Queue: 3 jobs
Job 1
Amino acid sequence: MNKTIQTTCPYCGVGCGISAKVDDVHHRLNISGDTSHPANFGRLCSKGSALGETVELKGRLLQPQVYGRETSWTQALDLVADSFIRAIEKYGADAVAIYGSGQLLTEDYYVANKLMKGFIGSGNMDTNSRLCMSSSVAGHKRAFGSDTVPGCYDDFEQAEMIILIGSNAAWCHPVSFQRIRAAKEANPALKIVVIDPRRTASCDIADLHLALASGSDAALFNGLLHFLSEQNALDSAYIKTHTEGFAEALDVAGIDREQLADFCGLDKDDLQRFYDWFAGHKKVMSLYSQGINQSASGTDKVNAIINCHLATGSIGKPGCGPFSLTGQPNAMGGREVGGLSHQLAAHMDFSNADDIDRVARFWNTANIAQKPGYSAVDLFDAIYDGNIKAVWIMGTNPVVSLPNANKVKLALQRCEFVAVSDCIKDTDTTALAHVLLPAQGWSEKDGTVTNSERRISRQRALFKPAGSAKPDWWIITQVARRMGFEQAFHYQSPVEIFREHAALSGFENNGLRDFDISAFADMTRHDYDGLQPTQWPVNQAYPQGRARFFEDGQFFTESGKAQFIAVTPRRPVNLPDQTYPLILNTGRLRDQWHTMTRTAIAAQLNQHKPESFVEVHPVDAERYGLVANTLASIESLLGAMIARIQITGSQQQGSLFVPMHWTEQYASRGRMGALVNAVVDPLSKQPESKHTPVRIKAYQPAWQGFILSRRELSISDPDYWVKMKGEQVYRYELAGMTLPENWQAWAQQNLCDSAGGTAQWQEYQDAARGNYRAARIVNHQLESVVFIAAESALPERNWLLSLFTKIELEKAERMALLTGKPPLGVVDVGTIVCACFNVGELTIQNAIREQGLKTHQDVGVCLKAGTNCGSCVPEIKALL
Ligand SMILES: Nc1nc2c(c(=O)[nH]1)N[C@H]1C(S)=C(S)[C@@H](COP(=O)(O)OP(=O)(O)OC[C@H]3O[C@@H](n4cnc5c(=O)[nH]c(N)nc54)[C@H](O)[C@@H]3O)O[C@H]1N2
Ligand SMILES: Nc1nc2c(c(=O)[nH]1)N[C@H]1C(S)=C(S)[C@@H](COP(=O)(O)OP(=O)(O)OC[C@H]3O[C@@H](n4cnc5c(=O)[nH]c(N)nc54)[C@H](O)[C@@H]3O)O[C@H]1N2
Ligand code: SF4
Ligand SMILES: [Mo]
């Protein structure tokens, strides 16, 4: 039976509503945007649209495992509880830890935090949000006395100027970006400024791109504060009535404009234009993300931005304010429950003895932790050093995503007890677990998440659980009960947890804390199931929620006034030197989500960037002898990786960019976390993931090649491999340092036992030039091809890939197979640009040429490309 269920996207913090048509019988979904959801009004990006492709059961963790063997829930849960109890008895409560994730639902997160901080009695619950939002949290706390995002998405249309700072929203918050694009199209006077060392897809709508020097944001905004003061562009009444510390902040902000431009690596006129625009507009929004947060001066950067908004009174009003874009679907929810190790719960933390006492009384526990636990980087160091004996990792993949990731790997290898809850079986982190706990994934689990604008939405179950998978909250409460905390963890369903969370938020609150959803404390299950997206707070004063904070100029500091913070700009901690002369910047791609455990299941999402790469400026390419589309090895003091070279002027000279996504599941040498330095911000403890000194050199294998195969293969140990799933095909990019003795034998060995039926072989060999090509056809269908080259170039893969979707090969196609090029008259579509409608680069180029298309709208009318999620529009424009 088909039913339609409203739920929320499990990827980014935009928090889009989804309307899912569910076909239980065939385990299929038909996904569309929920037109009634205020985060997206029906729009979805490529990742949200492809969710239906990710719900397959292949690759899922379906059964609990203990030391590699499938077992029962009882045994697995007993072992987790026993291991924790034993470690605590022997070494104390601080010898155990939970490392959670902004991808847990609020209910999961709440019970994990309650277990560790309330009942085990240690602060050792931290989360991957430490790598993501903690500088924003710390900056908000310093300025506002609370971790509050003041504004909302409706402000986009009302703003006169929007600044994207260290945010590639075009790829990372695509639906919000499209909303900003539409706002600009409706109001061309809306100024857009992008501040990012790279020229990104987000620059597509920018009036000004400031390609600043890595890490120099605080200086840039300090300079702005000083300029605003010089120009009398301040809101002096606001500063006087609602803030403190202005004089001190201004005092350290003054710097000669030339020097400043030099420090920031910016053109003086560009800098001036930005300052003039900011001073000349009342309604300015500063949207910021990881280019700000992931920095050893991340907290200062955040405050330098907030300072400028306080100075102009552009906060708490429509169309303006600092706005931290949250990354994960429940980054905000994690902050609500207190998932970071210095937080307690419901926006209370360990810095306040009253908070500790209050939460202890509410939870009715005598054992509450009294001090913060380890933050993420320190936590894994403590594991490495043997100070933590048992760790439970939930919903995150630290062997990839933490800095100095090889050390993280070693730490887990050394750790006495490692439990991992995940919905996917094979990840770089599950590989190191003693106990694996199968979690229900999106489409099975049920609960709430909170997006960037404080809006709480329901994720609803669409299917019955895969295998024996259980909700995270259930797994956690089962362990808690086994540890002797039955009373406090007696929940039967998520609504009971949500009610308790809501009650705690209102407990002795009386307007003291921003986070208050006490209106939900008595919610019925029926109301919970029907919960409509609502922005917190939701309490007596705001029964329907609240769009904006600070309209009244009242803040949550002791004095009720916002605090200016005097910021002294610093350079990143580790600067390039002779040995490691380049800066490694890391970040995201449009169609992949973090460590790819789910997005790489969707063939459609793998087309945009099928292989890990490194972006290099042409001058650096020349200097280091790098050739486009060949391989490079990149090394830092800590580790190395190999990636395909892309030469581009969008990169600054002296810096490299690599995507964060590739893991050991998808590439032999692509795990970039191994290189990243583990330097952290002294206040927020957030790692400086955007700045690691590295060196690069050409990687010169003896041979390169690729295999395309209908079936998944295990290829005998080439030095370099990347695997990617396509439409009915797996693509392997390969390179090796030694030539096999005999290519024919090599091909037979790697391809042969992969299919039944009678195979026909086509082969071509040019031993002199080191070329080998072969194809296997089984029952008229293409089964696999292999192309190897020692010296010459390899053909493009697109046409060959497309042959795998054919039931039968035509004669001309068979004949052309080993040339790698389509027979005359057949068109190659090129690399897929529009993932939503599967439109390739060559198709677009041809249409532009032949039909004289001028705008991306023309291309949309002609080919549909760019008309769904719109995130490929920048690339279409580049082709135009
Ligand atoms: N497609 C996709 N979308 C995602 C995610 C994903 O994995 N894939 N993940 C989600 C998550 S959890 C997060 S946190 C967000 C992250 O969203 P973003 O922060 O937008 O993403 P990043 O690519 O990590 O980094 C943003 C930009 O910061 C720039 N940058 C580097 N150094 C500096 C600097 O010193 N100053 C400034 N101003 N900029 C700098 C980088 O060049 C990069 O373009 O995305 C969310 N959305
Ligand atoms: N160098 C560098 N490093 C970075 C960043 C960067 O920009 N550069 N960005 C940082 C940021 S902002 C972030 S947010 C992190 C993200 O990094 P991670 O959190 O490590 O990455 P994910 O791939 O999102 O990991 C989520 C895991 O949870 C599993 N999972 C999914 N749903 C569920 C569920 O319902 N329950 C359970 N138990 N498991 C589930 C997934 O299969 C996956 O294994 O990376 C950080 N690391
Ligand atoms: S913008 Fe895309 S990834 Fe983010 S919530 Fe919306 S559909 Fe999901
Ligand atoms: Mo994130």
Note: The mean pLDDT is 95.
Job 2
Amino acid sequence: MMSQTIDLRSDTVTKPTPAMRQAMFDAPVGDDVYGEDPTVNRLEELVAAKLGKEAALFVSSGTMGNLVSVMSHCGRGDEMILGDKAHIFLYEQGGSAALGGVHPRTIPNQPDGTLELEQLAAAIRGENEHYPITRLIALENTHNRCGGRALRLEYVDAVGTLASQHGVKLHVDGARLWNAAVALGVSPARLVQAADSVSVCFSKGLAAPVGSAVAGSQEFIRRARRARKVVGGGMRQAGILAAAAIVALEEMVERLAEDHANARLLAQGLAAIDGIAVDADAVETNIVYFNVVQPELSGAALSAALAAKGVLINPTGTRQLRAVTNYHVRAADIEQVLEAVEAAVRMPVTSATTSAIYQ
Ligand SMILES: *Cc1c(COP(=O)(O)O)cnc(C)c1O
């Protein structure tokens, strides 16, 4: 029996480190709506520098970061082009349409998370009174629903060139941009050099308790600050939260390589189990999607059987599950996970349901 739960549902389950808690305790604060919180200001300067942009803005979540970015680039009735597996399209309640009035135009995500350049170019609208105006292309790096694949620098640059040739802005949903940068060995700033705006999360693999940021030009951030206020995101002594995000940026980025190594270990182990199918070569960062091919077992049933053994992995489809390695998962834990999966596949439990969480 396992003594401790191994939680692979997401990297959002990570808890703040002792250094973060201390920094939160010690943080000087002020009213950030007045621009007077020194810790928030320090975080925003740090984020802007790390992403090579003029300015940045602290927001409460990745969803808010994407929403205020889309609302800053597009007016009501304008169009945004994005992938059909994009987080913004699938998992944010359609907020950019519901609250921003922005029309989403999807094109298929390729298995590696990219959008084909030809299809992108063809989707940009010409001048015609029947059409909405294309204002924005949104990419996602790493790509959550495409297995945590990291979009290559050359690809992001090529989309940036295409966008600027057509007078369209480029937004990168970089909730896991830090993972992409570490996996590719490229600086985060270089990776988003072609983007007009970027959103990043501190509360996923970096283990901060709360918070995300957006970055871009001074003018973009001026608009984003207004958009943040209208969606209720103007926070006051938010330096308490920003302090943990600063520690996350300074201490928790490089170690993501451990999560990536553990994910590869997990994928290779799963590939060796009869009844499980996984493309281990496609695992580039901390996300592992795998399928149950054992006929008596569903994804939900396998998830429930694992939960009974203290291993938490969410089902993400009838036969599919997603495991996300994170700060609290060690290489030794991966061995235990593999043993649990092997046992569950050998002795299937068929009547079980669990809810799917896709964050
Ligand atoms: C998690 C995630 C978000 C949203 O972040 P929240 O902080 O949960 O709102 C946005 N985009 C991607 C790709 C994500 O994985």
Note: Confidence is low (pLDDT under 50) at residues 351-358.
Job 3
Amino acid sequence: MLRTDAVLADPRLAEAVGRLGRPIVKAAVTDAQELARQGLIGPAEVAETALGSLPDSATALRPVLNATGVLLHTNLGRAALSEPARQAVLAAAGATDVEFDLASGERAPRGRSTVRALLARVPAAQAAHVVNNGAAALVLAATALAQGREIVVSRGELVEIGDGFRLPDLLSSTGARLREVGTTNRTTVADYAAAIGSDTGFILKIHPSNFRITGFTGAVGVAELAALGPPVVADIGSGLLEREPLLPDEPDADSWLRAGADLVTASGDKLLGGPQCGLLLGRADAVRALARHPLARALRVDKLTLAALEATLTTPDTPTRRALRAGERELRTRAQRLAGVLSAEGIPARAVSSRAVVGGGGAPGVVLASSALALPEEFAVLLRQGPTPVVGRTADGCCLLDLRTVAPEADDRLAGAVRAAAGERGRCAGTPPQVAVAAHGAGGGRAVARSQTPERPCT
Ligand SMILES: *Cc1c(COP(=O)(O)O)cnc(C)c1O
């Protein structure tokens, strides 16, 4: 067989080394040589197979199929961008008029079309500003409106958002002082009123987006807080701009502004389904004070984010929304079709019912009925490490691939990934591969189906 160096001398692979770097291309060649050693491809096909399996980009970040059933999985980058948002990122990637007026040839307000799109979606907002993420939106509000002063907030709303980061610590780090009121389970409007004074910067209302307190509870709504006098900053977290009928307990920016909040803060990559960013919406004077604060420059978003956010706002049928609204029957049909195709090839796949969640700090306690492909548990690791990494979840000895978080257009890719994992499993078990995928990636795909994989039911 040709040595690796000799294969890499192929001009097409040499070009790929220039584009993707040597380690990626070399790994693809080594994989193809392994397939040749196993007799699955001919020695002359090594270069071609390696080419076909090369990734599209030079980043080590791998696109994965989110089959976890968690719509917004923080470890998987939260919301997947819509096709228009991806196109917008590409369009904005070079030089762009993000801060330039082509008609006058003068400087123009940065991201003005994105702000216009935001205001069109949230009629109750007079102005809007975009920062790096939801945490940055809170930091900017606390710094600009309450540094050296007090933020009055309920003890029931002091959230840890994840990875050990806690909103009270974040807020205190700005030099604002937290004035905690009420108790974990109950806070009344009198608690807030008693704490308000000349030192009050603002009242903060935080949506408890990743936990629920039930039982003997009480919290004060935005409308009552707004009547107390000081400005009200309200953190909705999820980024819903208008009411979502399927999530009646999730607040939305428009409703909380209408209820009297001066500012609403939110994340862009949660239920809004856009890029990571933080939204600040509300009264013109408050938004202007934030946008002109020196710290705003450090929290500024780049043109790619502005482009993706604008496209998300103008074409709101995002993968997140589609996953949320997918019908149970449609999900079941997809699971049954996939299970049928794969089991006919001898792969022990079954369609089962499943339970998906929003995740990522949204709609705690809400369960979305779903359907999944159930495979033996050892598929989980094989799928994660396959050519198209798939992340599922394991339960009751099964690897479950939940279809609510997989776009219907990706079903065939999902099936391909399961086939590849089944082939790998056959090899691992020391038995001849039942299904072998000799090459993967655009143009190089080739599946060799053999008969009868022994059934290993997982329950
Ligand atoms: C998620 C969340 C945040 C933090 O937003 P990031 O975009 O992750 O920085 C803040 N507040 C609430 C209520 C949240 O749900």
Note: The longest strand covers residues 368-376.
